[in-house]
Design brief:
By secondary structure, this protein is α+β, with helices and mostly antiparallel strands. 38% of the residues lie in helices and 22% in strands. The protein has two domains: 28-141, Sandwich (Jelly Rolls); 159-242, Orthogonal Bundle (Arc Repressor Mutant, subunit A), CATH 1.10.10.10. The chain contains seven helices and eleven strands. A four-stranded antiparallel beta sheet has the order 1-8-3-6. A four-stranded antiparallel beta sheet has the order 2-7-4-5. Strands 9-11-10 form a three-stranded antiparallel beta sheet. α4 (161-177) crosses α7 and α5 crosses α6. The longest helix is centred in the middle third of the chain and has 27 residues, at 132-158. It starts with 33 loop residues before the first helix and ends with a helix. 34% of the residues are buried.
Amino acid sequence: MLTPAKRHLEDLPADHPCAGCKVRDKAVCGVLDCADLTSFKSLGRTVRLSSGQVLFHEGDPVSRVFTLTTGTLKLYNLLADGRCHVAGFVSPGDFLGISMDDEHVFSAEAVEASQLCWFPRTRFDGFVEDHSPMERELYRMAAHELASAHQQMMLLGRKTAIERLATFLIVLAGRAAGTSDSVGTMVQLPMSRSDIADYLGLTKETVSRVLSSFRRDHLIRLCSVHQIEILELRRLELLAASGA
């Protein structure tokens, strides 16, 4: 999922319920002015999830929409043979719940302690109909989602293990920086190595081996199991492009 473009946001009063939100510049509601944001916020509630807690299951009715404000979720499907296919990861500022179907096509589970704003789908749909900037933002985000899905298909179909993992780290670094044209050096990996492997179409052992090779080549520093520092961004970008 891709981060929305940066915006010039209206300052909110200190007592506004969204004043302390750290993802307002990324979230779909970031296009709203103070008055409309107040009205929108009143339609929903906040939900907190602990690590491993499921937000919704594949096949559940799509009755709510969500914006993730803190934490990370994984989206997955359970295959007929019992295996879990990780379809993607949801980061702070991402919006989910909109579907062409009446049922969720995947399950969503917190991979760390997370918090979301949620809204009944009927109320959300009615609000969007009356607020064209939000409707345009949803359209723009849907276009990004389509592009992201195409990139993921290319990632799995054409790239080597080295290219896949290098691309994954660069995407996470870009999200951490909050813009599409700058990259943070610290990358959080709250998901397990197994989840990363499943998302990238690799084995857990391959993910660990490639990360170790990146460390030996001084491209990254493993700060902990769930955090790395990118030391050589340009070289990592070259690997993502060619695997050489």
